[in-house]
Structure formats: structure tokens, C-alpha cells
């Protein structure tokens, strides 16, 4: 008999049944679910596919010769004992006087002006290197969030109208942008709320945050299939902060457990076209969503190892479909830098980089 009640919520317990075969039993208490999935010897640390030292070297060479200073600093931090301060210094070049971030930090948006979209990317990097709430970059970014918040609608517009003057991916066209992104009710609001809970700025006190997270939970319940992928990623980042009160985090988690198998593409044949790949959502073994799509994550990690480019990079599975052809090559190169360090970080987290 399995002691299911002894497994912490959202955690994973692996029981070895026989040599090379096991069972992953996960109690998703807040979702009211028990997930049981079979594990092969690969999942349990057996003959697991790994990125070779030679291919890690190729990835390093690409980042150091063709990547942006930000990804170079991240590589040094993750693999060579570099400093978090160096990452923050590289990121500071993208911060504008208004506190927001721009200057093509988000490669698909070439505007030098600040946007909530680029500021999200900055927060992802700042939290990854454990930047404290009182750091000047955080405090300035919070000023920007306060100044761009739409009080009447309770949302942030993901990119400003002025961004349309600069090259950008076609999905960032201003025409029908609000409709395409569901009125910004989930993206970018959910992920931004995660950073508000993490950094606790005085401009967004707890009662204000609670009103917003309640609205996010309600919006998530009604999210369309077309917007599910974006909603899942944004809300997962909110949930993973661990700072949202249980009344709302449990509600969000229950819905995410339902949405993740539909929103994440689990068919390897479709990973070459734009989609939310399993390892883009489940970035570490500690992810509370690993039990939901465990086998797909394992396949995706194998896939990424097998599909590294000859130059050592990983390629985006999208393009601008003919829009701004003069600007796409620079954006594509920057995305290769971004995706290469992200893929390396995920492979490293899962023990998939040869030592």
C-alpha cells in the first residue's frame, strides 16, 4: 500500500518497482488529483541521453562569439562560476530612464522604448539571479509598472502603441492587439503579479494585489483554447513564486493542471513549428507541473539534445513570416542566443549535461 498522504503537495515521489522501471506518484493536493506515471531507467538516472562536453563547448563558442553580453554573462554564471552582478550589469543596458526595459531585450520587439513585454523578460532574468527587492533596478522597474497600470481596466498593456513604429513580429501589430491577448486579463497581468508578490512594492500593497490575483483566477477559468498556451506560461510563473495566498494559488493550480496537457504540445513531430514545448514550461525537476507531463518533458529533453545546430545554437521554431525582412536576421540571431542559454540551463537542471 502506498502512503499517498505522506507526499507533500506538488512534490514527486519515485518508487522503484523493479530494475529500470519505476512509478512516479504525485499528490497534487491543491488540485485534488493523484498523478501516476511510469518511469523508465532514463527517467530514474539510468542510461540517460546527455549533451556531450564537445557539444557544450560548441554552445559556449556560439554564445561567446555571436551571443549578446546578457547571455554571455548568464553562461559564465551557470557554467563557469561567474557573478550575478555581471548579469545585472548586462541587463542594465536595456533599462530606460522611466524604469522600464526596451532596446530589443525582447528580440521580437525592436523598439528602444520601454514595454511591459521587455520588462517581463528583465524580471525573469533578475529573479533567476536572486536580485533583492531593494536593488535599484527592481525599484525603478516597479515605478514603471505603477505608471503603466490601467486603473480603469485593472491591466497592463503588453506593448505601447509607439512600439508599432519599429520592426516587430506580426503578432505584436497594434491592430486588434487587445482582442488577440484577451484584453491582457491573464498575459501579462498574471506573471507581473508574481513579481509584485515577490518584491512587495509599496505602490501595490497586499489588498491591491489580492484584488488583481482574484481577477486573474477568474479570467483563467474562462480562457480560450487559442490563448491557453500564453495563459499557462504566465500563470505558471505566478504560481511558482510560492507567494500567492492559498485561496487563490490553489484555484489557479487546479485550472493549470487541467490546461497544461492541452496547452503544451507533446507531439515531437510538431516541435519544429511554433508551440509551447514541454521543457519551456517545466524548466527544472522541481516544477510543480512536471508530474502532469513527465514523459513529454523527458522526450523533449532528448529532442533538444538531438536538435542542436551545427554552430552550437538552438533555433527558434518561429519566424516573422516575411514582416520586416531587414530586421528579422538580427532578431533571429538574438533569439538563438536566448534559446541556447535557456536550453543549456534546462538540460543542466535535469542532469542532462555531461560532466
General description of the model:
- There is one protein chain.
- The chain is mainly alpha-helical and 355 residues long.
- Among the domains are: 1-48, no CATH class; 50-81 and 265-317 and 339-355, no CATH class.
- Helices cover 45% and strands 7% of the residues.
- The strands form two sheets. Strands 1-2-3 form a three-stranded antiparallel sheet, with no helix packed on it. Strands 4-5 form a two-stranded antiparallel ribbon.
- The protein is globular.
- The two termini are 38 Å apart.
Give the structure's gist in a few sentences.
The protein is mainly α. The chain has helices at residues 53-66, 69-79, 84-92, 116-128, 136-148, 177-180, 189-199, 206-221, 228-240, 246-263, 278-281, 294-306, 328-349; strands spanning 12-18, 21-28, 33-39, 149-150, 155-156.
Number of extended strands? 5
> Globular, elongated, flat, extended or rod-shaped: what is the shape?
globular
Radius of gyration over C-alpha positions, nearest whole angstrom: 20 Å
The secondary-structure element order is EEEHHHHHEEHHHHHHHH
Distance between the termini: 38 Å
Which residues sit in consecutive blocks of at least 5 with pLDDT less than 50? 1-24, 36-44
Structure characteristics:
two-stranded antiparallel sheet, 13 helices, single chain, three-stranded antiparallel sheet, mainly alpha, disordered N terminus, 355 residues
Helices and strands, with pairings:
Elements: E1 12-18, E2 21-28, E3 33-39, H1 53-66, H2 69-79, H3 84-92, H4 116-128, H5 136-148, E4 149-150, E5 155-156, H6 177-180, H7 189-199, H8 206-221, H9 228-240, H10 246-263, H11 278-281, H12 294-306, H13 328-349
Antiparallel strand pairs: 1-2, 2-3, 4-5
Amino acid at each position: 500500500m502506498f502512503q499517498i498522504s505522506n507526499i507533500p503537495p506538488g512534490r514527486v515521489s519515485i518508487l522503484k518497482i523493479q530494475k529500470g522501471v519505476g512509478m512516479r506518484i504525485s499528490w497534487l493536493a491543491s488540485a485534488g488529483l493523484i498523478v501516476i506515471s511510469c518511469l523508465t531507467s532514463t527517467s530514474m538516472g539510468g542510461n540517460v541521453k546527455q549533451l556531450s562536453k564537445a557539444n557544450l563547448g560548441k554552445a559556449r563558442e556560439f554564445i561567446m562569439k555571436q551571443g549578446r553580453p546578457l547571455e554571455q554573462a548568464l553562461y559564465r554564471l551557470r557554467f563557469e562560476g561567474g557573478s550575478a552582478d555581471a548579469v545585472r550589469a548586462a541587463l542594465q543596458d536595456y533599462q530606460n530612464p522611466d524604469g522600464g526595459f526596451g532596446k530589443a531585450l525582447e528580440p521580437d520587439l525592436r523598439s528602444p522604448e520601454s514595454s511591459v513585454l521587455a520588462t517581463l523578460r528583465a524580471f525573469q532574468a533578475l529573479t533567476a539571479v536572486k536580485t533583492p527587492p531593494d536593488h535599484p533596478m527592481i525599484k525603478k522597474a516597479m515605478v514603471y509598472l505603477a505608471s503603466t497600470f490601467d486603473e480603469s481596466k485593472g491591466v497592463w498593456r503588453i506593448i505601447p502603441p509607439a512600439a508599432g513604429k519599429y520592426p516587430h513580429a506580426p503578432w505584436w501589430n497594434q491592430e486588434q492587439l487587445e482582442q488577440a491577448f484577451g484584453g491582457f486579463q491573464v498575459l501579462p497581468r498574471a506573471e507581473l503579479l508574481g513579481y509584485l508578490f515577490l518584491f512587495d512594492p509599496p505602490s501595490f500593497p497586499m489588498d491591491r494585489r489580492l484584488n488583481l490575483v482574484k481577477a486573474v483566477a477568474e479570467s483563467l477559468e474562462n480562457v480560450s483554447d487559442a490563448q491557453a498556451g500564453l495563459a499557462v506560461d504566465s500563470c505558471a510563473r505566478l504560481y511558482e513564486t510560492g507567494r500567492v495566498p492559498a485561496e487563490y494559488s490553489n484555484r489557479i493550480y487546479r485550472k493549470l493542471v487541467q490546461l497544461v496537457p492541452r496547452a503544451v504540445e507533446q507531439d515531437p513531430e510538431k516541435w519544429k513549428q511554433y508551440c509551447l514545448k514541454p521543457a519551456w514550461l517545466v524548466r527544472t525537476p522541481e516544477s510543480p507541473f512536471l508530474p502532469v507531463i513527465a514523459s513529454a518533458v523527458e522526450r523533449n529533453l532528448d529532442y533538444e539534445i538531438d536538435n542542436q545546430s551545427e554552430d552550437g545554437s538552438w533555433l527558434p521554431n518561429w519566424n516573422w513570416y516575411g514582416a520586416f525582412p531587414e530586421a528579422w536576421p538580427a532578431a533571429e540571431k538574438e533569439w538563438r542566443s536566448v534559446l541556447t542559454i535557456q536550453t543549456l540551463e534546462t538540460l543542466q537542471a535535469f542532469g542532462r549535461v555531461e560532466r
